[in-house]
Amino acid sequence: MDFCPLNFIYPNSFYMLKNIVCALCVCVFSFEAAAQSIGLMPILQEIEQNNASLKAFSSLLESERFLLKSGNNLPDPQAGAFYLPFGDHSTGDYSEFQITQSFEFPTVYGARNNLIETQVSQNVLRYKLKRQEILLPAVQLLHQLVFLDKKRIVVVERTLQAKTVYTQLQKLFELEQIGILEVNKGKIAWVQEQFKIDQLDADKKNILLQLQSLNGGKEIQFDPSVFVENLKIAPKDSIWANKKYTDPELLLLNQREEVAKQQIKLSKNQILPNLTAGYNYQGVAGSNYSGVYAGVSIPLWSGRNTVKAAEAQYQYQVSNSNATQNLAFSEFSKQYNQYQILLIKYTEYRQTLSGLESDALLKEAYELGEFSFMEYYVELQFYQKALDLILEMENQLHLLKSDLLKHQL
Predict the structure, then answer these.
(1) Per-residue pLDDT reduced to its tens digit, 167-186
(2) Does residue 83 form part of some domain?
(3) How far apart are CA 98 and CA 293, in angstroms?
(4) Helix (H) or strand (E) holding 316
(5) Which of 49, 122, 273, 341 is the most buried (most CB within 10 A)?
(6) Has the keyword Ribosomal protein been applied to this entry (predicted)?
(7) For residue range 4-50, what is the model confidence (pLDDT) as tens digits?
(8) Which three-class secondary structure state does DSSP give residue 275?
């Protein structure tokens, strides 16, 4: 095969490729000052409003709230009557009427009300945790859309390049300067890039369907090009301090301790006697008697070991909270370190790639006749894979960051 100068194939080919690579580097490598996407939060609010699971869970918690409140109601009053006309007696028929109201010792209701309020607050945290479980996948799917959008821009540019190469190879074949195998390679390269676009479009549709499902069946309107986020994050101690006071998963641990503590107070009050008050009427032989009725239970057996059980439950919750928080901090530290290592690697990689002039070196080697155009094109794939790796690393950083900061959702 005769050597053909690059300028014959495409006069501005290398300059065009250089501009494309530089533009992609700017697109991929730039760090923006904004902390969160301009268009991300409205979408998350829409998903929270429309998500069927969140709606169902909210209804469940509301029913539980009413059920808890009903547990502090007084028992129903009791009414009874006697009318005794039968039997041997010289006096008139005997009749009796009584109405009573039983209730626990008054302090029990205050203690139980405090317990119920604590349990209701716990349910609020349960909802926030469920909300987080719904919105975190949504955030990550939105990040995937941003990644696919950037990837598609790159692949479209490569497809145009591959098409240009294939067209020029056909011209060279017509001039009998190259063989049909070179033309076939160029065509295969072009078709492969076209297939990548189709695959990216299919992946985007699948993600949009998942988001639509999270949004209660309503389509999501999201423009990935408006997404802007800074990959830098706050120091580990600062994030962890904020996480301890805002993450519902960790706050639930403290709330369970508080529930157990309130249960101890309730158990101690329930040892006190139950009371009964009422009205009684008796009538016989034209005479009648009426007055108040009072009764009190003697708590000899019912409260045995209940306080000890509540105290043991509290000790368990305290120990479990400490163990769970330590494990959570360990996992958080592991994630944070993984993120920082990847961020350093990503930063170094992008700086190295943006400082190289590999296309110019390839151009010079080609013009010196060191390899054919197809060999040049194969070499160019190496640097294209490097750009792909940059995009993959950036996407992975976004996913890791969203998981690290999920308590902010």
Answers:
(1) 877 887 888 777 788 788 87
(2) yes
(3) 8
(4) helix 306-355
(5) 122
(6) no
(7) 433 333 333 433 444 444 444 434 333 333 334 445 888 999 999 99
(8) strand
Q: CA-CA distance, 67 to 60, in Å (whole number)?
A: 11
Secondary element (H or E) of residue 358: helix 358-367
The CA distance from 182 to 391, in Å, is 30
CA distance to 66, 136, 180, per residue, from 331 (Å): 37, 17, 57
Q: At what angle do helices 13-29 and 106-174 cross, to 10 degrees?
A: 180
Q: Whole-prediction pTM value?
A: 0.79
The single-letter code of the amino acid at 154 is V
In angstroms, the CA 291 to CA 279 distance is 6
Query: Shortest CA distance to 121 belongs to which of 313, 254, 310, 261?
Result: 254
The values of phi and psi at residue 96, to 5°, are: -145, 140
Residue 48 lies in a domain: yes
Residue 48 CA: distances (Å) to CA of 132, 205, 388, 404 = 10, 21, 34, 20
Residue type, 27: C
Residue 156 lies in a domain: yes
Among residues 368, 16, 335, 377, the alpha carbon closest in space to that of 192 is found at 377
What is each CA distance from 137 to 127, 231, 248, 402, in whole angstroms? 16, 19, 17, 9
- Six token digits for residue 101: 């109201």
DSSP assignment letter at 283? E
Helix, strand or coil, per DSSP, at residue 116: helix
**Residue 388's domain spans which residues?**
6-92+106-271+306-408
